[in-house]
UniProtKB/TrEMBL annotation:
<keyword id="KW-1133">Transmembrane helix</keyword>
<keyword id="KW-0472">Membrane</keyword>
<keyword id="KW-0808">Transferase</keyword>
<feature type="transmembrane region" description="Helical">
    <location>
        <begin position="512"/>
        <end position="537"/>
    </location>
</feature>
<feature type="transmembrane region" description="Helical">
    <location>
        <begin position="467"/>
        <end position="491"/>
    </location>
</feature>
<dbReference type="GO" id="GO:0016740">
    <property type="term" value="F:transferase activity"/>
</dbReference>
<feature type="region of interest" description="Disordered">
    <location>
        <begin position="678"/>
        <end position="719"/>
    </location>
</feature>
<dbReference type="GO" id="GO:0016020">
    <property type="term" value="C:membrane"/>
</dbReference>
<protein>
    <submittedName>
        <fullName>Putative N-acetylglucosaminyl transferase component Gpi1</fullName>
    </submittedName>
</protein>
<dbReference type="GO" id="GO:0006506">
    <property type="term" value="P:GPI anchor biosynthetic process"/>
</dbReference>
<feature type="compositionally biased region" description="Gly residues">
    <location>
        <begin position="681"/>
        <end position="696"/>
    </location>
</feature>
<dbReference type="InterPro" id="IPR007720">
    <property type="entry name" value="PigQ/GPI1"/>
</dbReference>
<dbReference type="GO" id="GO:0005783">
    <property type="term" value="C:endoplasmic reticulum"/>
</dbReference>
<feature type="transmembrane region" description="Helical">
    <location>
        <begin position="347"/>
        <end position="365"/>
    </location>
</feature>
<dbReference type="Pfam" id="PF05024">
    <property type="entry name" value="Gpi1"/>
</dbReference>
<feature type="transmembrane region" description="Helical">
    <location>
        <begin position="407"/>
        <end position="429"/>
    </location>
</feature>
<keyword id="KW-0812">Transmembrane</keyword>
């Protein structure tokens, strides 16, 4: 119970009827001066409504046990909170029974509270979320990604390069500093009881519409004797009054009791067989020769795409079963809403991927020869003939830069010889290129992401000679630069201590200095020739990495774009809550009752839509990772010194596309048990889960009788 602080706080829905008819206010009494209004029942007496609430008459014919709602809202019963639109004005104020005046011209209620009560009135207006439309309020933003990525490092393998190792150490150091700062910060004040009750109030807001509809359906039972409902035998006799009705009833019974279970079991067996084949393929894609070795999906974009699609197909049945379980509970319970968005977002993305892939595949298949000729022209013109012209230009003083003729001729002839052999291999494979393009076109019927992944792998295979040129020239440049730096230390009378990783003084003989001078001079004047070749192949390598990054970006949009969430954001933003907001507003009209009341503050409670920044947070994280990897000072230093620039690990590149998949894939036995488990009945204890991602409070929840509101409909009503 909340402590009284001289403030009368009333939560009032906007969509309550604003007629002039008298009515009874029904809702939750969180404390003596903290009231939550659910609905207003018109043309009934307060005493009869109170008796109906105590007897559970207003909760009859509920689709699920009413105990779950009471447990979720943290209260054991509802109360009559007051009356509306009395024929005679009230003479006294009683906080246990309010007097409220509503007008059709005003959206806000006017509460009778004389100044002598020394109470401040605060009316919090809110729009009741529609649970059928999956609208709800939440204190925390909805999560579009699964939060079970604790084992993500094991799933994607160990860190493979120094750049990512340094990033991990930097993150660990940042976390350590944050923990140290906690010892120097001001201790936060303990939250008040009203702040602690806010999660329960949000639960009450989410359950308000469904409970109001249930009570309005049973309003006609207040104060009258309800008729006895027909027994099962009477209903069967009534439904089978004709021979045709009896035949239809028998056929429906045979179908649902005998045929439908067989169909579902055959479908489940087929689904499990498909799951077994997918599991075998996934094991092949994830197999590693050593714990620190790369798997097939870490090397090939096509294997990565197949892995993503198979994991989605394996996760869909589990998602569907979870969503079907939502029908066994009240619609106000919102724990399954993020799963619903993730499930249909995945379906939409795959459907759009297949639609685009069919159009793209049809074009590729119909024009396979032309596409193959264009690819061959580009491949020959840029990676063979264009590269040969560039190397020949580098061998003949490029841009007036005088290079070493002998070294340039040696390197140029070496690279040209490799290109000639590579061109011969490409020429032998050229007749098969139309067939390869045709296969790529056929793969498009599995989605546009498949040909994009195949083209990315083809780009890596057909430019492997450029990659080898880059590695060779980078090694030569790095070795030469390292030797020049060592000889420069020799001139200064110093040397590098490898064991202590420092520069120490050293005494050299005259012969050593003379030999070092000769070698330094030779290597220094040969350095421009090596730099020219290195910059050429490094630029070509960066261009290829940029093209592959474009393919990976297309795959990221096809696999992870929050299309369904964006549609919900435009259609109904209340289905994507990003928090709540309280806004102070002025009353639009003044009434006679309010003229005698103290100052009343009207506060608007609304749900904040999930911002677009949060919806595309994974893309911002991916951009941040790419920027930190390729634009880091260490990477730029490696590029300038000829050291190998490692590509970003696929653990970081594809973690966004795996964000909607569980970190641990469900086993075969678990899938079979989930698909074959019998449907749970509607009876049971109330759900202890929280609504909208809010945890339960530390106080124990009130206990409600398990059969409350579920009694026999033949029970006598209260007059």
């Amino acid at each position: 119970m909340l402590m009284s602080d001289g403030l009368l706080r009333v939560f009032w829905p906007y969509d309550l009827p604003r007629s002039s008819s008298p009515g009874v206010i029904v809702g939750w009494r969180n404390s003596e001066l903290d009231l939550f209004v659910l609905t207003v029942l018109e043309d009934v007496e307060p005493r009869n409504v109170d008796n109906a609430l105590r007897a559970g008459i207003l909760f009859r014919n509920s689709p699920h046990p009413i105990v779950r709602i009471f447990t979720l809202c943290g209260r054991s019963q509802m109360h009559v909170l007051g009356s509306t639109n009395l024929l005679s004005p009230p003479t006294s104020f009683n906080p246990s029974h309010l007097y409220v005046n509503t007008q059709s011209t005003s959206k806000v209620p006017q509460i009778y509270c004389p100044p002598g009560t020394n109470l401040s009135v605060q009316v919090i207006m809110y729009d009741r979320p529609h649970p059928t439309r999956m609208e709800y309020m939440s204190l925390h933003p909805i999560s579009l990604a699964l939060g079970d990525k604790v084992a993500a490092l094991e799933k994607f393998g160990p860190v493979s390069d120094k750049v990512e190792s340094e990033e991990e150490r930097e993150k660990a150091r940042g976390r350590l500093l944050v923990e140290k700062l906690k010892f120097h910060t001001v201790v936060k004040h303990a939250p008040s009881q009203k702040e602690q009750a806010l999660p329960l109030i949000i639960n009450q807001v989410n359950c308000a519409y469904e409970m109001a509809q249930l009570m309005h359906k049973n309003t006609h039972l207040i104060g009258i004797r309800a008729k006895r409902s027909m027994s099962v035998g009477e209903r069967v006799v009534e439904s089978a009054t004709t021979l045709w009705g009896f035949i239809v009833l028998c056929l429906a019974h045979v179908f649902w009791q005998w045929i439908w279970p067989v169909i579902t079991r055959v479908f489940v067996i087929g689904l499990v067989c498909h799951r077994s084949v997918a599991e075998i393929v996934l094991q092949v894609l994830e197999w590693r020769a050593r714990p620190d070795a790369a798997a097939l999906k870490d090397i090939s974009a096509t294997a990565q795409q197949v892995d993503i699609r198979l994991q989605q197909f394996c996760y869909w049945p589990i998602q569907y079963v979870k969503l079907r379980q939502r029908k066994d509970n009240w619609e106000s319970v919102t724990t399954s809403h993020p799963d619903y968005i993730r499930f249909y977002n995945s379906l939409w993305l795959v459907a759009n991927d297949v639609i685009i892939g069919i159009a793209l595949g049809s074009y590729i298949i119909d024009n396979a020869n032309w596409v193959a000729s264009q690819i061959n022209t580009v491949l020959t013109g840029w990676t063979v003939e264009g590269l040969q012209r560039t190397i020949s230009w580098l061998m003949d003083w490029p841009a007036g830069l005088k290079l070493n003729n002998e070294l340039a001729a040696f390197l140029g002839d070496l690279f040209l010889w490799v290109i000639e052999n590579w061109a011969a291999c490409i020429a032998n494979l050229q007749p098969y290129l139309p067939h390869v393009i045709y296969i790529v076109g056929c793969s498009s019927f599995a989605g546009a992401s498949m040909p994009i992944a195949l083209f990315s792998d083809l780009l890596s295979i057909l430019t492997v000679h450029i990659y080898s040129f880059y590695i060779a020239s980078a090694r030569i440049f790095n070795w030469q630069l390292t030797i020049i730096i060592s000889l420069f230390h020799l001139f200064r009378g110093k040397k590098r201590n490898v064991l202590r990783n420092r520069i120490d003084s050293c005494d050299y003989d005259l012969d050593q200095l003379l030999l070092g001078t000769i070698l330094f001079t030779v290597l220094f004047f040969l350095l421009p020739t090596v730099i020219v070749f290195y910059l050429t192949f490094a630029s070509a390598r960066m261009l290829i990495i940029t093209m592959k990054a474009g393919f990976d970006t297309c795959l990221a949009f096809l696999n992870h774009f929050p299309l369904f969430a964006l549609m919900l954001r435009v259609k109904d933003s209340r289905r994507l809550p990003g928090g709540i907001r309280f806004e102070l507003r002025d009353a639009l009209t003044k009434g006679s009752i309010e003229a005698e009341s103290p100052a009343v503050s009207y506060i608007h409670l609304e749900s904040i839509p999930l911002p677009l920044r949060a919806m595309f947070d994974q893309y911002f994280q991916l951009g941040h990772r790419l920027r930190k990897h390729y634009l880091a000072p260490r990477v730029i230093f490696c590029l300038m010194t000829g050291r190998f620039v490692p590509p970003i690990h696929r653990r970081n590149l594809y973690s966004m596309q795996y964000s909607m998949l569980p970190a641990r894939r469900a086993g075969m036995a678990e899938v079979w048990s989930m698909l074959t488990q019998p449907k749970k009945g509607g009876s049971g204890s109330g759900s202890s889960g929280s609504v909208g991602g809010m945890g339960a409070l530390g106080n124990p929840l009130p206990k409600v009788p398990p059969n409350f509101g579920q009694g026999d409909v033949r029970r006598r009503g209260h007059r």
